[in-house]
Design brief:
The chain is an alpha+beta fold. The protein is built from 22 helices and seven strands. Helices cover 73% and strands 6% of the residues.
Length: 648
């Protein structure tokens, strides 16, 4: 059973007064809600007290929106204090209160907090549903902060489900948004997601860079929970490397921070890891003490999945200590807790479904009563006003989405440039440290007269050379990103003239596939001359062929002997124009990504192998520059087809 700490969501959405940003019309109530939100992440006990005062104030003055937001803050605080069952009930009540208000932002915040609670309860499917709903609302409203938090939470859940590529994608997009917002807590959480994904892929050095970045940013922000999570992740890396003393120190530091905040579920996670490390070191008594304390906490908070984890660790520890009877007893308890967890999860889903059904029934009954008691004329007036409001809202949402798209493009550039620059800075720091150590070694040899350790010096120099190569590679990647983005400015438009598309296509084939082992098949029809800007259209062909070449070469590396990498090119007249088809038998594209491959900075290639600008540039040239269309059709493992049309 996976450890719940791997699933732990980011701090729920109302983690700061800026995030909540609600006015109820009552100054005292607004102040209480602001205090509840601002203290949630570092002082959840204070947040809970302020939330309950806000709730009492709202009920006393009959302020319905204020009560809904007070319930939201109360449920968030209960979740951070590991009282997840109580948090679920309060947040479901908040959702019921928020629905009739028509407050889309409030609904998004409630769904975000519910996603975190469902993760803690082990209800991954419900968590994904809630997070996806919150994400849709946030994007519709142009709320990039809430969108970023939901992406970070989804990234953690994707990791638990083994969907590493989706976790990387969510983490990178979240980091891009948080960078635009200058949100340090969010940046730390995004680095946590990316580090976890890279660790799953076995790229431990890159994972360490992200986890160290998370720790540095969390320390700058002064957020104890994020510092603790970064220390925990670094501790896990040390365990995997066999450096148990270092791992133990990191887990103990994480535990101290988690005790300081009061998050008991996170404390049980640290104690569980400490117990495992101590058992591996042969310190059986200390291991038993840590694991039994983790068990006591998990029992107190009713965390059945965590109890199952602890019982499994105790069984392993007692077996390693040569006590098979105790080991068997704990293994049986592990199985019992696992079965109880599955049963409880089923009951929780039934309870949630019942609450939703009751809320919907109450809403329907209220609507029927309203319709029956209102005059037909008044109802028509209300309907007209509602229609006008909806149209106004729709217009605002369209404008908000346009602005959000511009923001995502700008943030995407900043993030894509920042990533290689971060690597350049990190490897440069490593070279400085290695060079300093070499100087110290040579100085010691000079003073003592003893010959320096030639093997050690050689190893350090080889590391410096390797780091310098990485600096060069990432600097070139940054240069490629800038050149790709500049293509959006240079290559769209220009002087048009009648051109032979087949000639432009053959030039692109020679440029991209001329010296490769890729087999090219042609099915050309006679085409009329098309009025285009030749350099731009040839750039489109080059980008499509480079994409196809990467796909077939990746499939060749996977499939081995017997596979023939093939690119098929076809042209044909089309209604009102011509079409060009580029097909390959490569790795293919996930079906749900076919509409997104033309977004700037979106790529299906592994991290570091693509900027996500080539197809975006091709889309701009074809659609905006020439009034044509370009579409992608594909499934994973079945190759891909790009269909481009140009008007005559």
């Amino acid at each position: 059973m996976a450890s719940l700490d791997a699933l732990s969501p980011p701090p729920p959405a109302p983690a700061s007064s800026r995030t909540l940003d609600v006015e109820t019309g009552d100054g005292e109530l607004d102040a209480l809600l602001s205090e509840a939100a601002a203290t949630a992440i570092n002082r959840p006990h204070a947040s809970l007290a302020a939330s309950r005062q806000a709730r009492a104030r709202a009920e006393a003055i009959g302020n319905v929106p204020g009560r809904a937001y007070a319930l939201l803050c109360e449920g968030t605080a209960l979740s951070l204090l590991s009282d997840h069952e109580a948090a679920l009930g309060v947040l479901m009540e908040a959702q019921t209160e928020m629905e009739p208000l028509g407050d889309l932002r409030g609904r998004s915040l409630v769904l975000g907090s519910l996603a975190g609670v469902h993760v803690s309860l082990g209800n991954i499917e419900d968590a994904l549903d809630s997070a996806a709903g919150a994400l849709r609302l946030a994007r519709a409203l142009g709320d990039s902060e809430q969108e970023a938090w939901m992406l970070a939470g989804l990234g953690n859940s994707y990791l638990d489900l083994g969907e590493t590529d989706r976790a990387m994608e969510a983490g990178e997009r979240a980091l891009r948004l948080f960078g635009e917002l200058d949100d340090l807590n969010g940046q730390a959480r995004s680095h946590t997601v990316l580090g976890g994904a890279l660790r799953h892929l076995g790229r431990l050095d890159e994972a360490r860079i992200h986890h160290e970045s998370a720790l540095r940013i969390a320390e700058e922000a002064g957020t104890a929970l994020n510092r603790a999570r970064a220390l925990h992740d670094l501790g896990v890396l040390e365990e995997e490397a066999g450096r148990l003393d270092a791992a133990l120190g990191l887990h103990r530091r994480a535990l101290a921070l988690r005790r300081e905040v009061g998050n008991r579920q996170a404390q049980s996670t640290s104690l569980l890891q400490i117990g495992r490390v101590l058992s591996a070191q042969g310190d059986d008594e200390a291991a038993f003490e840590a694991l039994h304390e983790a068990k006591r906490i998990a029992t107190d908070i009713g965390a059945v999945p965590r109890l199952a984890d602890v019982e499994e660790a105790l069984a392993s520890a007692y077996e390693r200590a040569g006590q098979p009877a105790e080991a068997l007893a704990h293994l049986r308890r592990h199985q019992a807790h696992r079965e109880a967890f599955l049963a409880a999860r089923t009951q929780t889903r039934l309870d949630v479904a019942q609450v939703r059904a009751e809320a919907e029934r109450a809403r329907q009954e209220a609507e029927i009563a309203r319709v029956r008691t209102e005059e037909l004329g008044a109802a028509n007036d209300e309907l007209s006003r509602t229609l006008r409001d909806l149209r106004a809202t729709q217009s605002q949402l369209v404008q908000a989405e346009k602005l959000a798209s511009l923001g995502r493009l700008s943030a995407g550039l900043a993030h894509e440039i920042q990533n290689p620059l971060n690597f350049v800075a990190n490897f440069a720091d490593l070279n400085a440290e290695l060079a300093t150590e070499l100087l110290g070694t040579l100085e010691t040899a000079r003073q003592t007269g003893a010959p320096p350790d030639a093997d050690a010096i050689r190893a350090d120099l080889e590391a410096i050379v390797d780091n310098a190569r990485r600096v060069r590679d990432h600097a070139r990647r940054a240069d490629g990103i800038v050149r790709g983005l500049m293509g959006h400015v240079r290559d769209v438009g220009g002087e048009r003239r009648p051109s032979d598309l087949l000639e432009l296509l053959e030039r692109a084939i020679s440029t991209v596939l001329g010296s490769s082992a890729v087999h090219v098949e042609r099915d050309y029809a006679d085409l009329p001359a098309v009025e285009v800007e030749p350099a731009s259209v040839q750039r489109v062909f080059v980008n499509l062929l480079e994409n196809a070449r990467w796909a077939v070469e990746a499939e060749a590396a996977r499939a081995g002997d017997g596979y023939v990498p093939t690119v098929r090119l076809a042209t044909a007249p089309a209604e009102g124009g011509v079409e060009v088809r580029v097909e390959d038998n490569g790795v293919g594209i996930p079906l749900d990504h076919c509409t997104r491959v033309f977004e700037p900075f979106f790529t299906t290639k592994p991290a570091g192998e693509g900027t996500g600008l080539g197809l975006s540039l091709a889309y701009d040239i074809v659609t905006e520059g020439h009034g044509g269309t370009i579409q992608a059709f594909s499934r994973v493992g079945e190759g891909a087809t790009f269909l481009m049309t140009l008007p005559v």
